[in-house]
C-alpha cells in the first residue's frame, strides 16, 4: 500500500522519525570506525598511493605472524607481544579447562564428548565432528585418552610461542590499531579495509 496523503496519518511522520532515530545509531555501531581514519606509517601511505601490492603482502605476512589463528586479540594499546602471546596461551588453556567436568585437572575423552554434545548438540554434522576430532588429536599428545594440564600447556605454547624479544615494528603497531568494529579483535578483513581505503 502506498500512502500518498500523509495528512490523513498525522502521527506517521513522528513514528517514522522515531524509528530513524532508533535505527541510525545501530547502523553506525555496525559500521564502526572509518577505515580511512586509522593512522598508518608515512611509508605505508606513500606505497599504497603508488599502488604497491607488495605493501599489502607485507601487512598480510605481519598479520599472519601476529595472529596465526586468524584473529588478533587486543589487550590494550601498550601491550607487548610477550603479553599478547601469554594472553593467547591463557585463552587456549581456559578453553580446554571448561571440558574438565569433574574438576580433576585432566580432560577425559568422555568429558570432551559430553561437553561437545551439550554445547553443539548430538546431531552435529560430519564436518563438525571432524573438527572436534582434530581438536582432540591436537591436544592429546601422548594418545592416552586424556588431556593433562601439561599437554594443554604444550599445546598453548605451540599455538602461541613466546615471541622474540624485540620492539614491535611499525607495521605491527599499525595493525594493533585496526579494530574497526571495536570488538577487541583485529581480523584480516579489517586490515584489508584500512589498506584499501588509502
What does this structure look like?
This protein has 198 residues and is mainly α. The protein has a domain at 41-80 and 168-198: Recoverin, domain 1 (Orthogonal Bundle). It is 57% helix and 5% strand. It is built from nine helices and four strands; from the N terminus they run H-H-H-E-H-E-H-H-E-H-H-E-H. The protein has helices spanning 12-31, 42-49, 53-66, 81-97, 109-120, 126-139, 149-159, 170-176, 188-196, and strands spanning 71-73, 107-108, 146-147, 185-187. The strands form two sheets. A two-stranded antiparallel sheet has the order 1-4. The protein has a two-stranded antiparallel ribbon with strand order 2-3. Helix 3 (53-66) runs antiparallel to helix 9. It starts with 11 loop residues before the first helix and ends with a helix. Mean pLDDT is 80; it is low at 1-30.
